[in-house]
Amino acid sequence: MANFGYTLMCEQTAPCDLVDDAVRAEEAGYDFAAISDHYNPWLVEQGHSPFAWSVLGAVAYATQNLELMTMVTCPIRRYHPAVVAQQAATIGAMSQGRFTLGLGAGENLNEHIAGAWPHRTQRHEMLAEALEIIRPLLAGETVHHGGTYFDVPEARLWDRPDEGVPVVLAVSGEDSLALSKKLDGTVAVAPDASLRLPGKPAYGQVALCYGPDESECRKRALDQWRWFGLQWPVLAELPDQRAFDAASAFVTEDDVAAAVPCGPDLDRHVAAVRKYVDAGFTHVALVQIGGGHQEEFLAWSQSELLPALRADGA
What we know:
Helix content is 41%, strand content 17%. The chain has 314 residues and is of the alpha/beta class. The protein has one domain: Luciferase-like domain (TIM Barrel, Alpha-Beta Barrel), CATH 3.20.20.30. Helix 3 (81-94) links the parallel strand 3 (67-70) and strand 4. The chain is globular. It comes from Dactylosporangium siamense.
């Protein structure tokens, strides 16, 4: 049976509310919580973007059994890889081993605030080198690294969980999948069985827009989620909210509703999640679109959605 997660979507929710939502998610029966790690929201309408690692620290302290993960952190521009390792080790220690570090090659929207945005080929080279620093640090080694992109004269982590921190990688094609083979699993945003590794965890993510009024949900999804259909090659390169707004200007309500289940129909939401389970994903994180609609979603998750997913054999 798959594990089901709740997504702490920083782009649409204030930091204290995210912590409260995580506590409610644990009470509702979710197995894990995934958090986005961005400097900016995609659209002005979303309205938030607190520092994910501060939120994670509070969530680790406020919950007891909820597994935690980043979905995902980019370790090549905004953060130095040694700092990412320290962040991950600290959350791993605070949560008593409940944390998984999800990594990816990042997006211009978030990473260019600390320097120029490299070409795709260079970003993958930087990511591969970053892993040469992060993995041994998390394993308790002292690292001396002089590379093409990063220098670490000497570093070790003084606080980390005894069992280490699992590392999973966001994948979208052959290059990233090849790199992930050295790691502990994969993350993907499409229910594609080829984007997972045999015998290792595979994390997926599904956007939903639950509410009693389908028409209102469709409008909310268009307002805050219309960027989602742009696909990864575009998402990774657009620099700011104006660019995302322009690129998604011709997306219609019907376009978004065709990709995102909207409204109260339980079967439609279950069917969207089942695509990932049928593709062999072991973990599926759910995103409820709309920062002000989390409490009703979590109550519905507890009473209807999670029981239906588990009864469905997902």
